[in-house]
Amino acid sequence: MPPRLDKCCIENCTGNSKSRFSVPIVSHEKWERVIGKTLNQRSRICGDHFLEEDKIDTWVSGQGANKYSICLKKPRLKKGAVPMLNLNLKKSGEDVSTYKMDIDISIEAIVALTCDGASTNKTMLKILNVNGKKTEFKNYFQNPFNENRKIYVFSDAPHAIKNVRNRLFQNKQLKSKPLIIIMYTYKNIHPTNPCIK
């Protein structure tokens, strides 16, 4: 089978998405900065690299009982959409913080971002002066494009709960200064459940 002419230009992309999007003239430089390579008029990026909310696959018109929608044969991107998923980039925390500010904020009115405890995210939060300690708590940073607005940072709660659960299950105890949380307590709360994992 011959290779696709509109192959996705993201390195090592498996190209599972049928949708291919050309680079908008307005966002050309931003897309290049995100991807880390030069793009031309024939460059295409598949739908796997865009957030679902950035893709438009239906056309809606009317209101109430007169409202109807038509599925588009070829999806479109919302204005200002930027590839953000599965980019296969090896970025440092500093690169990630620059990426977040330069790309996301300049395009959308971002009010918050969510991140897990990965080392790149920890570095990014340190650079942005975000701190979760009780004594130095600060869960926001200044929007660089609007001094009257803040951008709040949230922890990925399900990910944090999973980490606590795994730690408790493996080590049978968890230190939370000055307390120690013991697995035995949870076994007494749920005596009928043979496995909390």
Automatic annotation (TrEMBL):
The keyword Nucleotidyltransferase does not apply. Residues 6-92 form the THAP-type domain. Gene3D superfamilies: THAP domain. One of its GO terms (molecular function) is DNA binding. Keywords: DNA-binding, Metal-binding, Zinc, Zinc-finger. This is Bromodomain-containing protein DDB G0270170-like.
